[in-house]
């Protein structure tokens, strides 16, 4: 039980206490099974997305096959204890009895069997990541009864072989390739290409082969008792929540690991009953572009898994109008009903059984970033949602995707094929033909394109590692397409003219061109085109818009740009957080301002000491006398002043936070090993350079075991007389010159790495004296503020004291994360972070998204303590978390005034600041 408790704690869920038996103490009031007629779409936490939406469609009177849902609570008990709740079997029996009475037949009875599907259904869509088993109830005893009932022997044996194949792989753990190879052998023996060309006798023989595989691989016969099949399938679905691929997908999509999955038991309807039957997936709008129309795939004489797996190429949904107009018309009406009801793009699974349409699933569909923005504004124009809701329908990660470059269509390129544009983007990389190679090469720094005939859930690792995915089979609803769209990966599917040979690790075009593994290919997820070699890229129109090179109001403006403009304008109107830029020079500052920056939150002055100025810093470090030191500082002063003049001009009228010199001085000196070797060789030749000898002495003197916790930041200003005074003077003189030129400089001076208020008091006193001298000399009044960077735990813990001498705090969350966790970022990310992510210790790197419980707690407490001392204290953040979508929401909630990030992240931060404000307002109103 200890292991179960520990595992549960690791997942972040409450484990059953060691003294508590879940089978005995489970309250009788807990309900573990709901009929489809009992739920609704608001019960996703309990019924999962699939179950809640099946219930909602049932409530709407749509044609849903009868069934019931086993709740996520039952799954949680199972995952925590290893056994289903004691009450579950009785509840399932009760609902199964009711289903049998409604259908007029019993599960797996010999003469007229009821068959059911057992399908997973978590709160959040995880396409293909968890398990499904169809045709449960079939056995040696009932297959003939099904054949007689349907009047189609081939159909019955086809359904039986599907059950053994799915059950064997999913429930019994048999290698799925064994079944695939047996199926291929059967087709080859018959001389056919697709499985629908196998007749009843072929399939009957295949069933016998499949059963032999199960027996040989598992040591037991395929179970013939229908209820045993169903119970084992339910347990397999529960287990699939914690498969490696499911956990990987949750990490990728940031889905909590403690939610569990519901299980849906649904009476079977059959799309494999002949040409008047089929199965398909439909979207109420194009998930790739957002355009309205008829989008989806249909496959005659097939079951649902055939479409998703992409093993046979589908026909466009529009073709259904010619195949079965009555079903098509009914489907179009249902799609309109669902989109209006859900007020969003809906993803729908359906089956037609001999001309009768059945709805098997609906959910709010995954979409590309561009489609998300277009659809949000379209729904506003249709009056289905308001602007606040439209803002919640998009996110910063999607906006970041839209800012990636795209292919230059005017460049010379060699088109070698074309498929279905499943997920947009411009991806270039070396061709690889399996997920293992994709991951291996990617970790070595190679960019790769994963090429497969079709993908399956086991390919998830490779899909994540690849720049893009290319398949020769499948459509917009195949596994590759759905998962790629969810991840924002470029994807081209169904490129039939390209022959993919994964065993030989090559792809061959119709013209005979061979692409071997390692050859560079380019895929365009917006057009579906595949190119040999590398195609040049051009800036995204969204970036051109943000840089002012494209006007959203122009008649010829890109439709996507117009949608982005509308949503960004609303986000800017409602957000409370201001957004600044991390910029160290006038060029970056100007770009940041074009992107919407409202000032500079971090100018790192150490970046101004690189290049030719490095020698000046060396002279400062090597100075033995006060005269030499003053001479070195006097050389640096005019250069620093010129830097700040340019910066203040670029950001005129907006605040500019200048951080005084922060890194350890050894960073400006030669590497100790290289210099030692150089001096040793020179001494051996007896031509040692005096400057090198002095430099080596200085390097040895300044060498530290852990320089990031050594002589840096405010400590430099206190140890090297005149250093900070020089920088403050340069800032003040630049501001004075700008003000005398009728400008509006708004400089803020930030002292880094303060751990105690006494450090800040000493530097502040010196700085105020310098500023007063400059004001008197230039005849101006400068309103320069002085504050500090809160980047040490002690500073956060004593923020109330430090605020007595600070006009503002800027949280340096990069260093604060390092010092709170005891991590050296440069080392740990490459050494053990991957293991921490895989083991679930991290949901995401704390350097990527702020650690709310640890680092975030210090930020909250420091902000509150600082404002308790000084109510008008300005609070900002300038670590990389300032541009992370999830972290921006945290900073909004914590009451900060602004976030600061790199120029290209500014639009993302603006959007997320607006979303955070709208979300808070919505929560308050509720």
From TrEMBL:
Which Gene3D superfamilies did the record assign?
1.20.80.30, ATP-grasp fold, A domain, ATP-grasp fold, B domain, Phosphoenolpyruvate-binding domains, Phosphohistidine domain, Pyruvate Phosphate Dikinase, domain 2
Keywords in alphabetical order, please. ATP-binding, Kinase, Magnesium, Metal-binding, Nucleotide-binding, Pyruvate, Transferase
What is catalysed by this protein? pyruvate + phosphate + ATP = phosphoenolpyruvate + AMP + diphosphate + H(+)
Q: Where is the PEP-utilising enzyme mobile domain?
A: 446-528
Q: Does the keyword Magnesium apply?
A: yes
Keyword Oxidoreductase set for record: no
Name the needed cofactors. Answer: Mg(2+)
Q: Using the record's annotation, list all stretches that form the PEP-utilising enzyme C-terminal domain.
A: 562-913
Report the residue ranges that make up the Pyruvate phosphate dikinase AMP/ATP-binding domain in this protein: 88-313, 321-370
Q: Tell me the GO molecular function terms.
A: pyruvate, phosphate dikinase activity
- What InterPro entries does the entry give? ATP_grasp_subdomain_1, PEP-util_enz_mobile_dom, PEP_util_AS, PEP_util_C, Phosphohistidine_dom_sf, PPDK_AMP/ATP-bd, Pyruvate_phosphate_dikinase, Pyrv/PenolPyrv_kinase-like_dom
Q: What is its EC number?
A: 2.7.9.1
Q: Which family does it belong to?
A: Belongs to the PEP-utilizing enzyme family.
Record's protein name: Pyruvate, phosphate dikinase
What organism is listed for this UniProt entry? Streptomyces mooreae
């Amino acid at each position: 039980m200890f292991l179960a408790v520990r595992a549960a704690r690791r997942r972040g869920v409450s484990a059953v206490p060691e003294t508590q038996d879940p089978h005995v103490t489970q309250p009788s009031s807990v309900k573990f099974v709901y009929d489809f007629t009992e739920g609704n779409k608001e019960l996703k936490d309990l019924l999962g997305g699939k179950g809640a939406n099946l219930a909602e469609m049932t409530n709407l009177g749509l044609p849903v096959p009868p069934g019931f849902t086993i709740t996520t609570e039952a799954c949680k008990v199972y995952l925590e204890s290893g056994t289903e709740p004691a009450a579950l079997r009785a509840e399932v029996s009760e609902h199964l009895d009711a289903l049998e009475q409604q259908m007029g037949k019993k599960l797996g009875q010999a003469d007229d069997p009821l068959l059911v599907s057992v399908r997973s259904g978590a709160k959040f869509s995880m396409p293909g990541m968890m398990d499904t088993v169809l045709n449960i109830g079939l056995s040696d005893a009932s297959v003939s009864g099904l054949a007689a009932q349907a009047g189609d022997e081939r159909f019955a044996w086809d359904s039986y072989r599907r059950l053994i194949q799915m059950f064997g792989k999913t429930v019994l753990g048999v290698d799925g390739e064994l079944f695939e190879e047996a199926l291929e052998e059967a087709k080859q023996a018959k001389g056919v290409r697709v499985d629908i060309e196998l007749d009843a006798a072929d399939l009957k023989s295949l069933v016998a082969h499949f059963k032999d595989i199960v027996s040989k691989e598992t040591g037991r016969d395929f179970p013939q008792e229908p209820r045993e099949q169903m119970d084992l399938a339910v347990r397999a679905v529960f287990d699939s929540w914690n498969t490696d691929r499911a956990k990987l997908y949750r990490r990728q999509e940031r889905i909590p690991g403690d939610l569990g999955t519901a299980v849906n038991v649904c009476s079977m309807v059959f799309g494999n009953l002949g040409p008047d039957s089929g199965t398909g997936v439909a979207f109420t709008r194009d998930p790739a572009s957002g355009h309205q129309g008829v989008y989806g795939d249909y496959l005659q004489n097939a079951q649902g898994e055939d479409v998703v797996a992409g093993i046979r190429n589908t026909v466009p949904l529009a073709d259904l109008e010619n195949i079965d107009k009555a079903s098509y018309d009914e489907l179009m009406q249902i799609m309109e009903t669902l989109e209006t009801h859900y007020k969003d793009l809906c993803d729908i699974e359906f089956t037609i059984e001999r001309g009768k349409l059945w709805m098997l699933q609906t959910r709010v569909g995954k979409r590309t970033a561009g489609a998300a923005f277009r659809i949000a504004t379209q729904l506003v124009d249709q009056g289905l949602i308001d602007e606040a809701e439209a803002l919640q329908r998009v996110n910063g990660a999607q906006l970041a995707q839209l800012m990636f470059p795209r292919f230059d269509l005017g460049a010379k390129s060699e088109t070698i094929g074309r498929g279905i544009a499943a997920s947009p983007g411009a991806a270039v990389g070396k061709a690889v033909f399996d997920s293992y190679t994709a991951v291996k090469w990617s970790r070595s720094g190679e960019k790769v394109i994963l090429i497969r005939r079709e993908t399956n859930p086991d390919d998830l690792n490779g899909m994540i590692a690849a720049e893009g995915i290319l398949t020769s089979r499948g459509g917009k609803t195949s596994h590759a397409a759905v998962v790629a769209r969810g991840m924002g990966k470029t994807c081209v599917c169904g490129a039939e003219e390209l022959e993919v040979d994964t065993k030989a690790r090559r792809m061959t075009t119709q013209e005979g061109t061979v692409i071997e593994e390692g050859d560079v290919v380019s895929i365009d997820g917006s057009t579906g085109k595949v190119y040999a070699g590398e195609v040049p890229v051009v800036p995204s129109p969204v970036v051109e818009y943000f840089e002012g090179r494209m006007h959203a109001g122009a008649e010829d403006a890109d439709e996507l740009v117009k949608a982005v403009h509308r949503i960004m304008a609303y986000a800017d109107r409602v957000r409370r957080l201001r957004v600044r830029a991390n910029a160290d020079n006038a060029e970056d500052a100007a770009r940041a301002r074009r992107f919407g920056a409202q000032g500079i939150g971090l100018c790192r002055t150490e970046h101004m000491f690189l290049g030719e100025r490095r020698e000046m810093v060396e002279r400062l470090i090597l100075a033995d006398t006060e005269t030499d030191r003053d001479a070195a500082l006097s050389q640096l002063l005019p250069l620093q002043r010129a830097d700040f003049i340019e910066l203040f001009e670029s950001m005129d009228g907006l605040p500019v936070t200048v951080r005084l010199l922060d890194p350890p001085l050894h960073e400006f000196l030669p590497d100790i090993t290289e210099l030692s070797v150089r001096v040793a060789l020179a001494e051996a030749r007896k031509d040692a350079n005096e400057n090198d000898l002095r430099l080596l002495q200085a390097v040895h003197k300044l060498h530290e075991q852990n320089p990031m916790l050594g002589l840096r930041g405010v400590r430099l200003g206190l140890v090297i007389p005149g250093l900070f005074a020089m920088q403050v003077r340069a800032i003040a003189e630049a501001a004075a010159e700008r003000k005398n030129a009728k400008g509006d400089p708004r400089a803020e001076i930030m002292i880094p790495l303060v751990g105690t208020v006494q450090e800040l008091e000493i530097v502040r006193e010196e700085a105020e004296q310098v500023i007063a001298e400059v004001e008197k000399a230039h005849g101006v009044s400068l309103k320069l503020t002085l504050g500090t960077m809160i980047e040490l735990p002690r500073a956060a813990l004593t923020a109330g004291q430090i605020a007595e001498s600070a006009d503002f705090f800027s949280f340096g969350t990069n260093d604060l994360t390092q010092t709170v966790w005891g991590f050296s970022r440069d080392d740990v990310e490459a050494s053990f972070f991957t293991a921490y992510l895989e083991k679930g210790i991290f949901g995401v790197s704390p350097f990527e998204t702020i650690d709310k419980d640890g680092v975030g707690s210090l930020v909250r407490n420091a902000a509150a303590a600082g404002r308790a001392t000084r109510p008008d204290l300005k609070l900002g953040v300038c670590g990389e978390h300032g541009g992370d979508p999830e972290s921006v929401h945290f900073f909004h909630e914590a009451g900060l005034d602004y976030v600061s990030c790199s120029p290209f992240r500014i639009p993302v931060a603006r959007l997320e600041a607006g979303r955070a404000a709208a979300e808070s307002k919505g929560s308050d109103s509720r």
